[in-house]
Amino acid sequence: MNKLDDYVTRRGQTSPAFAQAVKQEDLNLDAAVAVRQLRDSLQLSQRAFAQQIGKPQSTVARIENGSMNVSTKLLAEIASATGQRLQIQFIPVHE
């Protein structure tokens, strides 16, 4: 583990709110990467992707930069609008 991981672990043990915020940011980053990879695979600009999914370009930008808490409903709408199927899975945590 590096110093940052150590800090996050220690701080998360003493602050449940901090631990929850870190988990949310991890989820936001996962969604950001997945949406960006999907958009890239479709070879679309943010604007064209936004038009395809029926959302403002600013929403796509916020998802992709990880600043938006993306709901499973929104991810399902993105999947449907792009001919994809949303899959959610549980993955064991190895600490």
TrEMBL record:
InterPro entries in the record: Cro/C1-type_HTH, Lambda_DNA-bd_dom_sf
SUPFAM superfamilies xrefs: lambda repressor-like DNA-binding domains
Matching PROSITE patterns: HTH_CROC1 (PS50943)
All residue ranges annotated as the HTH cro/C1-type domain in the record: 35-89
Molecular-function GO term, any one: DNA binding
Entry superkingdom: Bacteria
Protein name: HTH cro/C1-type domain-containing protein
